[in-house]
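User: Could you check the structure of this?
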Amino acid sequence: MNTPDAGAPDAVAVQSALADLGRISLAEHSLESVVRTVTELTARVLPEAPIASVTVLRGAQPTTVAASGELALDLDHEQYRLGSGPCLSAAATGRPSEIADTRQDRQWPDFAAIAAEAGCDSMLSVPLPVHEQVSGALNVYARKLTAADQRTWDLLSRFAAYAVVPVSNAYLYAAAVQRAEHLEAALDTRGVIDQAKGILMERFKLTPEAAFQALTRVSMETNTKVRDVAARFVATGELLAD
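Assistant: Sure, the predicted structure tokens are below.
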């Protein structure tokens, strides 16, 4: 990967953008806002307002978890539909993938033709670090960028290599928060069910198994979640709603 000349007019803009990447606080940003910030910073050093997205690959199922514009989202989905393209290749192989010019690409001709028609001239996907069997890629779609413009292409490659770090960290942070929320919800559910079981056991001299069966029977008969049946019983003393 080439490095821009330190004395070049764009060198200051690049260094400023990279410094801003390092100052992103995960506690203050969602994954979507991090991707938007990355896109805004990319636009400082690249022409024609590029757009970014993040692909996550769980097993064989790709998903766009964040995008800064409809063009990126639409072209991600076209790659998922076709089953091939730079974002899927980068996520699956762990190596950067690119289309330097969508009008001349031979590796993914079907997708390249769709991208060119949509107004995207070039694309670069940089893999996210693999974590817990989940892989992914940061995708940057440029409206005006060609293979002939090697200097601009080098800027994009350099910037994306740095940008992938906060994007990956934001994804891992969001996933950790989601797991914590699910765990908290699960603990709350278990707590109220245990409360309801205890009341049933005391009131009707039931075993723990029989008390839980009573809750699940009402759940099935009323098409209500067991947790909601238990919460109502704890609050009102009634298994069935009036």
